[in-house]
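Sanity check record (used in CI):
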Amino acid sequence: MTTTGITAAETPTRALPRWAVFGVANLAVVAVLAVASWYLLADPTTSPWHLYPLPFNAALFWAILFVVFVGFVCEFVGFDRLPQPARGLALLASTAVFGIVATWVLAQGLGRIAPDFAASRPGGLGYFSGALFVLFGFGTWVMSVLNWRHWPWPQLGLRQPLAGLCEIVAVAIPTIVLYLVIGLPAFSVHVRNPLMAGDTVLGWFYSIVVAVLITGQLLDDQPWQMLGRGRPGRVASVSTIGNIALGTVLYFVFVQLTHLLVGARAAGDLGVGIHQFPAQLGVCWAFWMIFWANAFENRPTSLGTIANAAIRLALTFVLAVATFELYYRFGARRILHEPAVAAGLSGNALGFLDWAVLWTLFYVVGFQSYGLGRWAPAGTAD
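Expected output for AAT family amino acid transporter:
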């Protein structure tokens, strides 16, 4: 999920190489956009619309999935014909419409005949039940792009937009199955003994999403390319099985790690809710993996496969842990005015950090870092 075609000359600055200045500048812009728009649309104390946490989070999840569809599955076909900033504005507007309409149709349309999706469910759970589909979509469609590399559509000779539309439809089948078998029952008003509890569903499957991003983004689709011997169909099969296995391991590791990060008292307050916290840490890591690849060019890129991967993994993970702690212990309460969830903790990282992911996709990818061109590097040497 990386950008393409930066053409400005790369020269070092006094303190930082040009690529680092460019990345930091993007981070500053994304942070300002995310926080300012949060105050307007979602902040529990400053927003006039009282959308926090739902239906705001529901529309946010659908919005990110729309960007995955048009930006990465369909490779911005149609949008790429527009000059900047029209291209970015078109993406922003169409994404907002899709997110709002999808949320409204499920809650106010389907929700009238299916109680699971009703807007009237306590705590906005009807909105959440519909948007839960997106969690599984993050795993399946992102994996089809990063790990499968759009297999089998290029091999069949299909081009965009037909290839992307076929990919969306085909991958929708396993996504719907996962949602109906594992996801929806955990939050249904009718099911008493779901296959997994709701917190476990969130924590476990988001860990699989993290595995997809690690292998597809940070590791350049290794080890799946090696194990699949470069054969597209085999790589797709191996990566699917491998990401499920890796994600499951990450889930159990993250449960223990987040228990340590939040502390015994907060973990006790959370109870079974601690099983959701692999997703809370995972979204912090997802933000940095996506941001690092797109704003910092997925550096390093010239130190060898193992060194590149090790540095990217270590750096983004450390940033994720620091972001998790900063958000839950300070930012959510002091800056974003989110309510407490346990002793010393406030907020829900699946809200604001996903909002920051969306603004990264808007600004860095959709607008192509509009206004920062003079700092954009062109070379690939570190």
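The first helix runs from residue 18 to 41. If this sentence no longer matches the regenerated tokens, the check is flagged for review.
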